[in-house]
Amino acid sequence: MFHVEHRGEARYTADGSMARIFAITNQKGGVGKTTTAINLAASLAAAEVPTLLVDCDPQCNASSGLGFSPDEERPGLYQGLRREAAAEELLLATAMEGLALLPASRDLVGLNLELVQEPEREFRLRQLLEPVRERFGFVILDCPPALDLLNLNALVAADSLIVPMQCEYFALEGVAQLVKTVQAVQSVWNPALEIEGVLFTQFDERTNLSKQVADNLRQYFGDRVFRTAIPRAVRLAEAPSHGLPALLYDLKSRGTEAYLQLAHEVIERERTRQPSLAPDPAAAAASGAGSGNP
Ligand SMILES: Nc1ncnc2c1ncn2[C@@H]1O[C@H](COP(=O)(O)OP(=O)(O)O)[C@@H](O)[C@H]1O
Ligand SMILES: [Mg+2]
User: Fold this and answer.
1) Which residues have C-beta atoms less than 6 Å from ligand 1?
2) Nearest atom of ligand 1 to the alpha carbon of 36
3) What pLDDT shows up at residue 169?
4) Which atom of ligand 1 is nearest to the CA of 26?
5) Phi first, then psi: what are they for 275, rounded to 5°?
6) CA distances for 196 relative to 169, 233, 261, angstroms
7) How many angstroms separate the Cα of 290 from the Cα of each of 12, 131, 241, 260?
8) Which residues surround ligand 2, an ion (CB under 5 A)?
9) Which CATH number belongs to the domain containing residue 194 in this structure?
10) Residue 7 C-alpha to ligand 2 middle, in angstroms?
11) What is the pLDDT of residue 218?
12) N or C: at which end does the chain have fewer Cβ atoms within 10 angstroms?
């Protein structure tokens, strides 16, 4: 997938193999999907893995959170899914070195209806990303809070799902729905789809409810629950209004640290999956590589 070159400095380069594609999904809104998509993607880039963030939500929060206002005239995912533009033409460089964005625009709302009669409507995103996939180590899809055609496109394009969950009572209700959705997608469109992991967000270990719900989710998902939990952290909520991922806004904050740790966990899992392909990024970073950090 990627390897490190030592020529004075360590860095990852694409080696012609395909990026692993994660959809950040949960049909509930406000659970931390976009916060996770932006900050996981930025943290993977900080670990020197070229990463692409795709904003699949008509609300455009991932785009504006990286400083790209949805009101500007600019081609984005809408044109890509309508086959009016290639992914290549849609990629934007961000303030974070190694992190590219494929932005959304508000007209994505209409796409659900516009594509209904079109051929291969579930495969548009997968096909769009195919030509640029070898350039990246990871592709992160920020999904809308709905089980619509945009979300379906993300689940069909993805290798694996990352499911942010708030440890509150109603989190458990969504689990059955999630598992049903994954099974449906597997049986019809994407047999290889996996659940990479459940991520606890806005986690407060001091409350009994958080602990209790976390225990239940661990019982259900076992070691597919990420060891890293994301704490409630005000810097994570502030950073998007500055158009920056948290690690460019406040490198030393708890939220930043949590997402960096999550990125290492993700990379570590990837290394276990494909031992020959991915050397230890922590070692590469520790060897003094200049990353996108400020
Ligand atoms: N760990 C966190 N700590 C504090 N605020 C958070 C955290 N994660 C998300 N938020 C805030 O909660 C709200 C919803 O998060 P968001 O990532 O947009 O969820 P979703 O994309 O699932 O709708 C946003 O205002 C965001 O800034
Ligand atoms: Mg969102």
Assistant:
1) 29-35, 61, 145, 201-202, 230, 232-233, 236-237, 255
2) 17
3) 74
4) 22
5) -60, -30
6) 22, 24, 16
7) 12, 28, 26, 16
8) 33-34, 61
9) 3.40.50.300
10) 39
11) 92
12) C
